Amino acid sequence: MTRTALVTGAAGQDGVLLARHLIAAGYRVVGTVLPGSESPLQPYLDGVEIESHDLRDAEGFERLLDAHEPDEVYNLAGFTSVGASWDAVDLVHEVNTAAVEAMLAALVARRGRTGTAPRFFQASSSEVFGPQAPNPQDESTPHDPQNPYAASKSRAQQATVRARTDDGLFACVGILYNHESPLRGVQFVTRKIIRAAVEISEGRQESVSLGNLDVSRDWGAAADYVVGMHLALTHEEPGDYVLATGVLHSLQDLLELAFGAVGIDDPWPYVRQDPALMRKADAPGLSGDATRARERLGWTPSTSFEQLVAEMVDVELRRVRTGVEESPEYLRG
Q1: Is 52 annotated in the active site?
Q2: 125 catalytic, yes or no?
Q3: For the chain, how big is the Rg over CA atoms in Å?
Q4: Which CATH number fits domain 182-217+249-284+303-330: 3.90.25.10, 3.40.50.620, 3.40.50.150, 1.25.40.10?
Q5: Cβ atoms within 10 A of the Cβ of 91, count?
Q6: How large is the average pLDDT for residues 86-98?
Q7: CB 3.0–4.6 Å: which of 53, 150, 157, 328 could bond 127 by disulfide?
Q8: What are the residue ranges of CATH 3.40.50.720 in the chain?
Q9: What's the pLDDT score for residue 242?
């Protein structure tokens, strides 16, 4: 019998990649998008049943459960900008915490009415650990959130754990470290660097202005991470899992790889450091220990940092040369 998955935030990077992974696995996928929103990633959602839904609409979520009777729910939607979270504290709480608590309550209530409830996956973030956490972090590392986004994700994670331990729901948390793909938005510095490398190599841009290139992150491939999400919800027991590579790379590493991939061995004549983009020295980047995911789920990242950057550069070259910004042909698999 065909399984049904409900994916919130289906028009985002992770939502698209997860939906496509599940469809390839034989699922029927229902994906939610914010009412009135237009996503540039819409071309990738062929085969997904789209529903307009605001996470804050608790009754709307209950109607989705009644209408589609999903076997699995993946909550990938939310307020995602760390920087912007300082100016939208109430909204961040409503979307990232209160909405999750309401979703979990709806699942408990549904089980009370029908005897069953869908399995639930909550996307958390390495931000919950705070910038000073010693490396590497795992599922037992204490939370020390230092911004409204991180605090909201920490509270939602705790609510998900309570729903599992106190209410008996099959509820899992994925603690996601930085993950990229060719679908990454142009507002992110990783895509900015890759786009600049391509346009400079094509003679369409003279230079790129950047801030601190010493910033380090544990970057993985988003296509690998959505596989981890699916493995978590199809495992025999629910649990929480760090999804990470365990390896740190700097923006300078990314810059040099991206320019090298387009045949520019020395990128520095094209780089301008803009004081307006400089920040105080970042704390050492966080790296995750995904031992539990490897041992329990059999999950390991299959894409190296070098392969990830090369893939993103290849797609960006196709975008610039064809003028087509988004096409399903840009995704592997």
Answers
A1: no
A2: yes
A3: 20
A4: 3.90.25.10
A5: 15
A6: 95
A7: 150
A8: 4-178+219-243
A9: 98
